[in-house]
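User: Sequence in, structure out. Go.
Assistant: Echoing your sequence, followed by the structure tokens.
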Amino acid sequence: MAKSKSVNKILLTSLFFVSAVIFLVIFSWNTSPLYTFFGYDSSIFKSMGKFMADGLTPYKDFFDHKGPIIILIEWIGFGITKSDYTMLLLQAIFLTATLYGVYKIANIFMNSKKSVVLTLVSLLVLSLVISGQGGNTVEEWILPFIIWSSYFAVRFFAYKEKEHDYKYSILYGITFAIAAFSRLTNAIPVLILAGVILIYLIKQKAWKNIIKNILAFIIGALVITILILIWFAINGAMDEMLYATFIFNFKYMEAKTFVADGLRILKHTLRYLLPLIFAIVLQITMIVKKKDVWLNVALLIQSIVAVVMYLTGALFPHYLYIWVPTVVITLILVVKDYGVMKWFARGYVALLVVVFIGTNYIAFRNYHSYLKDMAVDYEKNCKDIYSHMPDKNAKILCVDSNPYFYIVTDTIPNYKYFHTQDLHSYYDKKTKAEWTKLIKSNKARYMVVSRMGEFPMYPYLRQHYHALYENGRFSLIEKN
């Protein structure tokens, strides 16, 4: 019997791994061998993985406002080998863990066959997000931790237990810390689950159990936090890491909050938000029908928070990655109560199929229309500008250019602000002052500049640097 279970686990894992690979090859434009495309965020992350492998220290030698978890992942996935194939393999491993978690959640309520089908259907939901950005985004790497935290929370509510096993709260704490040290808002889904569990335990007056769970959560969070702090303290970059990950990120999120125009909101709603909006209707319906009330309350809070956060922030589709479990678990609950929710289940699946077809049609049409040609042209110009650099051993700084340049030319930057310098300066006065000081130090012998007329430091560069070579996209400049 035990042997049979082991065989089933191996077969399931193999099925999910193969499905993950096929899915990523089709949809992860930034890492798939099928496409000539590099993305923007993905280029930043892969560059950081490369820099770390080249011996640079995050935040001290190169800056981005994403947390250290993503840099570690990119170092493992891309930096060590400098290959998209290992990046894709790491993505497949993470996605396999996510799919197995979805299967375990479904298997709480239904048999293995239905659970496998729903797990594969969850890839439809995931495609809505990944095709909008091309894969290898911060939120993608957090997904397995959120889904497995969700599994233990769902199991707790499904079995109507009076007390919550504190060991699971260790995982919630670990997930919270990993999410917070990637991008602070990524921790919100698990915080909502933990919050609803806490309210449930208060209602049960399980005071000792509450204390155990709070302590377990703190221990889980501290394990990750202490390891990160020790590493950065040893490498002399703890202050820089904390500032970039939390203080700068807070300023960034505050500056990114806006009310978009109506047409843009409508487009994003139709393309990305419909599954979450309809999930709200389903969750309310199941609460009214007294089906898994506590669990649906948690999912309802997640859905509302997700929609509000998305519509009041920057409308980047990859932000919705962390809410994929919300949609998938809602679908599982609707199918579980198919007798009561028959028309809702049919309608939700139909909606997912329609949005899947529409969203991915738009995404692939955009790729074939201009993204492919843009990527080929960009890479050609990167190699061309580098070929005209007199000293190939010198460091080179890209100003206001895609950091893909560093990957194509296998170079490292002079200064730690290696991309989007004017944008980072806009969000934070301290960053602006430091960047201005670095530029005016004139330590950089060579720079690659795009859009020279728009760059805020252009007047200074024109006085202290001269053009060596220009092509259709870049100017190679050298210090006077």
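User: And one key feature?
Assistant: The longest helix spans residues 338-387.
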